[in-house]
Write a sequence for this structure.
């Protein structure tokens, strides 16, 4: 991909993809946007996690993507996704889109995960999904300040909840832990009156603001 | 891959670590994870039939028993990682008895109910796990039953009983300024051996006992208008309600007194314990009763022993004995009592040279006598060469009549159907019995079948056991060879179905109760009898018949155990209702209103009836009925 095609829009990009992927993308495009005002117990959240060669956004490349759905407040191991970006990044990312639908999506540490993923999606598919992004990095301290009252590392939150995973620093392994944290976050959010993806997004937003000005 | 995350976790816990790989895979694939914040209810009885089976992944979930019948030691149970719920409710597809509440923030796997049932079918390991769990409910129920009785039975239980529990009546007392006449009138009216004198706060000041009256009141010619305070014994012997009966006995022995005042923690009179109260306490033990029976030489002593047997039965339930042992104890003591009655009667009747045995029929014959059983008995004898048949039989009958009457005096009601040894039809020689039994087997009309259910459960209670053995061996051979008779017996046994409803849990009679004898215990008893005849098992006890016949027939031992548990549970409920009734002086019956049972008992009763149904189904298939 070069800067020109990116500038010209995504039509040029998708044209180079094979028919099956184009079909899948068209299907994804056609999905209705979810109502951010529906309650948790009616919402399918998709926890997305990435695995990269390192933590430097400028230098490091995406290696794998993983996703786990939390559908109506239940985490089903069956409803999960994992794909290596090599050798076919477009196919891997298209499958991810198909799995995630129109969101809302949940990540831990959006500044890295979201940036990395959006860049890859744009690069390979020319798409920037219009997802509602929720970042547990910000939401967890807002919801469970009795455990940790400031943004902290995933390992710290796992320790706070006694959460384990089968493989750390693996896209799906960490996603499994993040998804469990999301279950806990939903329950607390519901108790505090944050019943929908929108109110969670608002909570996260105000938290970021507070941090910026505080 | 994520399925592996669940199975990795599950594999750390029993029974999942032993589960077949494909079953574990099935479970891991279908179980979803949910979060339950601290304090939230995961499952309650009000939620109705559970839709999911739960396995705690992390955190703590407390199972709390709900409803009015909860009992402390089972009231709350905490479940941690790897533990699951509700096994009983979801297997039985009925609402949970417990409320399950997260007491910590908890992650819990949940498996849809239909997948749970599939998993039971798929995995023998899981099936055994669940079955054993349900079986353990039976034990819990037994414990509940025990604690119900503990309180009342403790009154007579042991010498370690606190005095507070021994005091039955509200204290009777007067103040020191009351006239002697008023005090003595009250003693006479209340039939008490002493009068306690207290101050206005009910704290004891003195005591006046019957034995004080002669030296202190009558002989000195004291005016009965004088206050009781003038003649009472001051500073009476006082014991705390928490002191034991043993302490009291020691105090009485040391100070030579017959009455002790029991006071509460604030020194207020709670009651009086007499020497006689303590004596009663020591008298009722298995060994004591046994030796008092063997040493009894008149009807009075035997009547006392009979009352003690009932009291002991109550105590034994409280001490945690199961239905099987309990009925064995009752039956052993009743046997001893009956033998003693026969011995005493024999001393007055000349039975010299007659080879005979006293037979017990029906429930007594099966060692399943409850406390309200009528007497069902007979005699088997051998006529010596050259004896006059009529004269011989009359001698036996006269003796039997006395035994029957004395048994009735000792609390074994005369049999309304005249199934008693004093009935000439039931005092027969070995050959006559064979003829009688043979007639029933050859021509099994309804009356013959009914007779078979009573008389085939005979056993020798005392006398020559070999006579009983000979009859049994002959009976088993004859019945087994007569397939039509067994088939008719089977058809008869299937006339009454377990009272399980399609919509409601139980089918009840018009008064809302279930007859535990007719629609419960008898279902097991009838099938067991047929299986025993078919497999030539000699025992007359239902449990032994099921066990021995079941083994011979190759029924899995867990299956047999489940059947026996079901039978025991029904027997236990029967004994319970009889005890409770005895307390109200109502005739003991076998009825239970399922609505008055607690949830757990109800569930187990239902399971017990299911076992009866299973047993009947086996018979139905065997005889294609």
């Amino acid at each position: 991909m070069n800067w020109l095609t990116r500038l010209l829009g995504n039509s040029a990009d998708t044209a180079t993809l094979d028919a099956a992927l184009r079909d899948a993308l068209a299907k994804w495009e056609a999905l209705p946007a979810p109502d951010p005002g529906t309650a948790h117990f009616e919402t399918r959240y998709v926890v997305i996690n990435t695995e990269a060669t390192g933590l430097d956004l400028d230098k490091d490349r995406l290696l794998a993507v993983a996703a786990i759905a939390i559908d109506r407040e239940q985490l089903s191991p069956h409803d999960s996704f994992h794909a290596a970006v090599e050798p076919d990044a477009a196919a891997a990312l298209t499958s991810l889109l198909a799995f995630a639908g129109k969101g809302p999506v949940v990540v831990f540490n959006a500044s890295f995960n979201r940036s990395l993923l959006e860049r890859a999606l744009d690069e390979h598919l020319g798409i920037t999904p219009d997802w509602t992004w929720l970042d547990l990095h910000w939401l967890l301290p807002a919801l469970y300040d009795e455990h940790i009252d400031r943004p902290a590392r995933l390992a710290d939150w796992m320790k706070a909840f006694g959460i384990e995973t089968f493989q750390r620093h693996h896209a799906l392994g960490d996603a499994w832990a993040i998804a469990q944290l999301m279950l806990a976050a939903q329950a607390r959010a519901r108790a505090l009156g944050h019943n929908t993806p929108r109110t969670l997004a608002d909570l996260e937003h105000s938290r970021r603001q507070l941090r910026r000005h505080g | 891959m994520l399925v592996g995350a669940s199975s990795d976790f599950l594999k750390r816990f029993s029974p999942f670590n032993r589960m077949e790989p494909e079953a574990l895979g099935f479970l891991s694939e279908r179980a979803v994870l949910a979060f339950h914040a601290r304090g939230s209810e995961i499952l309650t009885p009000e939620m109705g039939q559970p839709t999911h089976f739960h396995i705690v992944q992390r955190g703590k979930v407390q199972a709390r028993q709900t409803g009015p019948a909860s009992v402390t030691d089972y009231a709350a149970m905490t479940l941690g990682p790897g533990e699951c719920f509700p096994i009983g409710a979801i297997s039985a597809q009925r609402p949970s008895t417990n409320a399950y509440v997260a007491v910590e923030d908890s992650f819990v796997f949940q498996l849809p109910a239909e997948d749970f049932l599939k998993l039971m079918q798929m995995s023998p390991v899981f099936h055994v796990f669940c079955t054993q769990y349900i079986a353990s409910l039976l034990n819990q129920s037994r414990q509940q039953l025990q604690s119900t009785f503990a309180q009342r039975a403790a009154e007579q239980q042991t010498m370690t009983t606190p005095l507070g529990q021994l005091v039955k009546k509200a204290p009777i007392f007067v103040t020191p300024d009351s006239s002697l006449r008023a005090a003595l009138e009250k003693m006479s009216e209340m039939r008490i051996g002493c009068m306690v004198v207290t101050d206005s706060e009910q704290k004891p000041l003195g005591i006046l006992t019957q034995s004080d009256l002669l030296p202190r009141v009558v002989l000195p010619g004291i005016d009965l208008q004088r206050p009781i305070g003038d003649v009472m014994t001051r500073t009476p012997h006082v014991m705390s309600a928490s002191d034991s009966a043993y302490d009291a006995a020691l105090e009485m022995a040391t100070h030579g007194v017959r009455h002790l005042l029991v006071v509460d923690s604030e020194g207020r009179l709670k009651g009086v314990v007499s020497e006689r109260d303590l004596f009663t306490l020591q008298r009722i033990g298995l060994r004591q009763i046994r030796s008092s029976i063997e040493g009894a030489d008149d009807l009075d002593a035997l009547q006392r022993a009979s009352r003690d047997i009932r009291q002991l039965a109550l105590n034994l339930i409280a001490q945690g004995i199961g239905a099987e042992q309990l009925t064995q104890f009752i039956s052993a003591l009743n046997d001893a009592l009956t033998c003693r009655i026969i011995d005493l009667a024999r001393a007055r009747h000349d039975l010299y040279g007659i080879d005979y045995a006293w037979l017990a029929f029906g429930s007594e014959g099966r060692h399943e006598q409850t406390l309200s059983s009528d007497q069902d008995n007979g005699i088997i004898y051998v006529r010596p060469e050259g004896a006059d048949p009529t004269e011989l039989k009359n001698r036996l009958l006269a003796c039997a009549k006395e035994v029957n009457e004395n048994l009735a005096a000792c609390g074994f009601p005369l049999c309304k159907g005249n199934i008693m040894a004093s009935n000439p039809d039931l005092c027969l020689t070995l050959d006559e019995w064979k003829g009688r039994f043979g007639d029933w087997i050859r021509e099994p009309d309804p009356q013959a079948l009914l007779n078979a259910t009573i008389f085939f459960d005979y056993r020798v209670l005392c006398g020559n056991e070999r006579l009983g053995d000979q009859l049994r061996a002959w009976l088993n051979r004859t019945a087994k060879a007569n397939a039509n008779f067994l088939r008719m017996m089977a058809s008869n046994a299937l006339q009454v179905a377990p009272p399980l409803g399609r919509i409601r849990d139980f089918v009840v009679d018009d008064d809302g109760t279930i007859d535990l004898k007719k629609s419960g215990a008898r279902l097991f008893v009838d099938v067991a009898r047929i299986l025993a005849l078919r497999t030539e098992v000699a025992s007359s006890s239902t449990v032994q018949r099921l066990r021995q016949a079941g083994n011979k027939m190759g029924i899995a031992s867990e299956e047999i155990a489940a059947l026996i548990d079901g039978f025991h549970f029904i027997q236990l409920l029967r004994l319970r209702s009889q005890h409770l009734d005895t307390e109200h002086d109502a005739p003991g019956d076998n009825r239970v209103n399922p609505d008055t049972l607690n949830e757990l008992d109800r569930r187990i009763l239902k399971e017990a009836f299911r076992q009866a149904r299973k047993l009947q189904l086996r018979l139905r298939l065997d005889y294609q009925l």
About this structure: The mean pLDDT of chain B is 84.
